[in-house]
Amino acid sequence: MELEKNVFVGTYARAPVVIQSGKGCELYDVDGKEYPDMTAGIAVYSLGHGDPDWVNAMIEQAHTLTHVGNLYYSIPQVRLEFYLIYLYGCDSWKAPPVANSGTEANEAAIKFARKFQRFSHPDKKLPATEFIAFTHSFHGRTMGSVALTSKEHYRLPFEPVMPGVKFIEYGNFEEAKKAIQHGKTAAVFIEPIQGEGGIYSATKDFLRALRTACDDAGALLVFDEVQCRLGRTGHLWLVRPLV
After folding, report:
1. How far apart are CA 217 and CA 94, in angstroms?
2. Where in the chain is the domain with CATH 3.40.640.10?
3. 1: how many CB neighbours lie within 10 A of its CB?
4. In the 3-class helix/strand/coil scheme, how is the chain assigned residue by residue?
């Protein structure tokens, strides 16, 4: 821990523990002390540590082909995207690009929303470019996604961030509807269950009402499920059975 202070920029406040290994849902420090893993790599590691199927798949792929970027076709990538479409249960969709993190996925969604508005309204000199997010939200730390994050201590050190973001009280549909209807909203970003801001859960009625309001206004509705998807609520995707 002391050595790290000399070589590493302190961007995170760490717990005073040095984790050396893990198995399943358990972590072990350098002294062999066992801890239950209650963070799962900040809510991204659903299979636990050392899952044999995952390990074997990684080894097999590493022996076969490591990385080719997006300049060439790749069979595993196409198989994955077909599988994602199948799991979501919507054959008419095309799978989005696979991202490395939640903040990258939200950055891509920001760009998709802006491009969608320009494509949908080619005759408009200024199509909808603004965004709506909610109080207690956390959508990432990169410059676009941090602009959608309501907590000021994430945003203030890096201002000016991306302009055109309005924060609405989480769960307040009437306020959200007024903001959506003004015609300048490219997309609404919402976590169906908020994690970083506290465990706040949106109601089914609120999510369905947002869906209708966005459809009526021609705005996209982006569900940020980074912390609540992949079976954590009993469904692979939380909003798929709801909206």
Report:
1. 23
2. 100-223
3. 8
4. CHHHHHHCCCCCCCCCCCEEEEEECEEEECCCCEEECCCHHHHCCCCCECCHHHHHHHHHHHHHCCCCCCCCCCHHHHHHHHHHHHHHCCCCCCCCCCCCCHHHHHHHHHHHHHHHHHHHCCCCCCCCCEEEEECCCCCCCCHHHHHCCCCHHHHHHHCCCCCCEEEECCCCHHHHHHHHHCCCEEEEEECCEECCCCCEECCHHHHHHHHHHHHHHCCEEEECCCCCCCCCCCCCCCCCCCC
Distance CA 155, CA 133 (A): 14
Q: Which region, left, alpha or beta, applies to residue 33 given φ > 0 means left and ψ of -120 to 50 means alpha?
A: beta
* Residue bearing tokens 């990169």: 142
65-123 pLDDT, tens digit per residue, is 888 878 888 888 888 888 877 877 766 667 777 777 888 989 999 999 999 999 988 88
Closest to 32 (Cα-Cα) out of 41, 21, 48: 21
pLDDT digits (tens, 9 = 90+) for 47-70: 889 999 999 999 999 999 888 878
Q: Please state which of the four CATH numbers 3.90.1150.10, 3.60.15.10, 3.40.50.360, 3.40.640.10 is assigned to the domain occupying 100-223.
A: 3.40.640.10
Rounded to 5 degrees, what angle do the CA atoms 90, 96, 102 make?
115
CA distance 160 to 164: 11
